[in-house]
UniProtKB/TrEMBL annotation:
Gene3D superfamilies: MetI-like. Belongs to the binding-protein-dependent transport system permease family. This is sn-glycerol-3-phosphate transport system permease protein UgpA. The keyword Cell membrane applies. Its main location: membrane. It comes from Bradyrhizobium diazoefficiens (strain JCM 10833 / BCRC 13528 / IAM 13628 / NBRC 14792 / USDA 110). One of its GO terms (molecular function) is glycerophosphodiester transmembrane transporter activity. Signal peptide: none annotated. Keywords: Cell inner membrane, Cell membrane, Membrane, Transmembrane, Transmembrane helix, Transport. The chain crosses the membrane at residues 12-32, 75-96, 108-128, 156-180, 201-227, 266-287. The keyword Cell membrane applies. It is a multi-pass membrane protein. The complex is composed of two ATP-binding proteins (UgpC), two transmembrane proteins (UgpA and UgpE) and a solute-binding protein (UgpB).
Amino acid sequence: MQKQAIFQSKLLPYALVAPQLAIVLIFFYWPALQAVIQSFLLQDAFGLSSTFVWFDNYIELFRDPAYFEAIVRTFFFSFAIAVSSLSFALLLAVMADKPLRGSMLYRTLLIWPYAVAPPVVGVLWIFMLHPSLGVLSRYLRSLGVDWNPLLDGNQAAALIILAAAWKQISYNFLFFLAGLQAIPKSVLEAAAIDGARPMRRFWTVTFPLLSPTIFFLLVVNIVYAFFDTFGIIDTMTRGGPGTSTVTLVYKVYSDGLLGGNLGSSAAQSVILMVMVIVLTGIQFRFVERKVTY
């Protein structure tokens, strides 16, 4: 029999929810509303005067080839980061789920990188792969690889993807491990009795049962790649060389704070917000159909 909580006062439930609602309204909805309003204004760099220009900021954006390049680059980065981080995390979770000696230490060490802030991740990886100071760069040069992400845009993009994926692997690993441990052992044992080999058991039994976890992590990783990679990009490449690592979120920062074009920056943030909402809705509309609950 389920117990139902009964509040003595009708105002008490609203009072308990009020702090969270206040945080959401003040730090999420109010800034979003301000960005929408500012996207229709043309302001000077100091914010002393503004002119209502309707959709001129949006029109200028869609006329700018650099903005479309940033869109394509953002989607490429998001796909590469999500696929690589999810794949490696699943592989590590499968290995950690086995009854091995020292598995608890192994799991703990794999979770630790998630506590590292994105700017710190950028500093760590740029020191390891700096063309003149990095330890790994020296090893690459000994193999005959001409490694210089400060001059080569493709190498800089690969470095950003590598660092961002490494940062997210720990988060994905934690959820994959929990999902693996929630799968009933009797199901896997029944598949083994039927003669299914380990790889076949994984793809026909384990992987479908992990689909809710995979779907959740796919949404989270896409949002992470769109927004939370800003600190890594700013620390490692600052969008360079040239514009080879400028994504949508970094372009909002560079055009608004560094370039002083506040109206265009606000319009970009609104478009970015709409993109993420639409992309998440598409995932829930189509990808969730293949999820097995």
